Amino acid sequence: MPHEYFNNEKYEAEKYDGYLKTYESSSLKTTSTLAMLNFGQSVIFSVGLTGIMVLASKGIMAGSMTVGDLVMVNGLLFQLSLPLNFLGTVYRETRQALIDMNTLFTLLSVDTKIKERDLAPPLSVTPQEATIRFEDVYFEYLEGQKVLEGVSFQVPAGKKVAIVGGSGSGKSTIVRLLFRFYEPQKGNIYIAGQNIRDVGLDSLRQAVGVVPQDAVLFHNTIFYNLQYGNINATPEEVYQVARLAGIHDAILRMPHGYDTQVGERGLKLSGGEKQRVAIARAILKNPPILLYDEATSSLDSITEENILSSMKGLVQDRTSVFIAHRLSTIVDADEIIVLNKGKIAERGDHHSLLATPGSLYADLWNTQNSKILNSRNSPVELQPERLSQKEQERKKLQEEIMNSVKGCGNCSC
């Protein structure tokens, strides 16, 4: 929990105590008001009953009334008093019902910004024609705070295109716009030649599979979360995508296997396990378009390589867009688009971008590999005989990585 990470348990407890104090005060005020109302009604009823009984008794003594008249007056007074005892409760419940109705109608009157056109046709797309095209797209979350400025590019059907850039350059925004979580202020987005504004929202999102950077899981079993990509999938299909995502063996090692509860938002799983679940259920959805928003950021290099190798066959026939910070995951992309300050700064494949003098992509690549280079050129060299077996294996692996990086013919790193 965040408050435990920062030793703020006392602060949170005091805040909660303050909220409870406010609730207690309001509750006491409500109860006191109702008690005063009931007490007032009881006093009035008692005084009235006493007065009527005295007058009726005098009438009987005077001979103008009978005992039956006294019983009738007493019964009528009780019939009048019983509804009055509930007056305070009924008033309070009526007021609460009016408040709840007002909240409900306010919620119903909220107008969504993403609107589907009347009688909009469904998006008709197959993997062979799932071309994505951004045409002069401008977008800003807040007025005056531009995120995308005139972005135009095309992702051919069946190709793998990667989008890279610094933080805040608009990479994840492209995914959100394509899935129609937001609408661009200017420009158009097309899938298979159809403007996504003119097609049914449900069919659009059915055709696009997303692996988000922050994978949110339901408080249920691992099997439930995997099958959520396609609730009609058979158990064998779920197991198959789990194998492709490299999580099947890890699940079987758990005490309850696929029936293991993942906890609220998947807190019982590691970050890498959550990302693998997200990858698996996106594969299970089997859409013609796949979007990966930093899908392997929480995985170790070996698991990442295994998953990417398994997915090569899957993305061959699908249009795929990779949002990446770790450039090693998109070296094989058909095209790499480099964003800078909301605009396309560079585009090309891995080798051509590295060979371009002053390339922003080359700077990003060199920055990510600088740690390996620095460790290679470090003046302090430990003697092999003084290293443990694990350290020797780590050093050997590091040297192999260095040799592979330096052996790239077109690398300027």
Automatic annotation (TrEMBL):
Protein source organism: Coregonus suidteri
Predominant cellular place of this UniProt entry's protein: mitochondrion
Record-linked Gene3D superfamilies: ABC transporter type 1, transmembrane domain, P-loop containing nucleotide triphosphate hydrolases
Protein name (database record): Iron-sulfur clusters transporter ABCB7, mitochondrial
Ranges where the ABC transporter domain occurs: 132-366
Coiled-coil annotated spans: 380-407
Record's bilayer topology term: Multi-pass membrane protein
Gene Ontology cellular component terms for the protein in this record: mitochondrial inner membrane
The keyword Glycoprotein belongs to this UniProt entry's keyword annotation: no
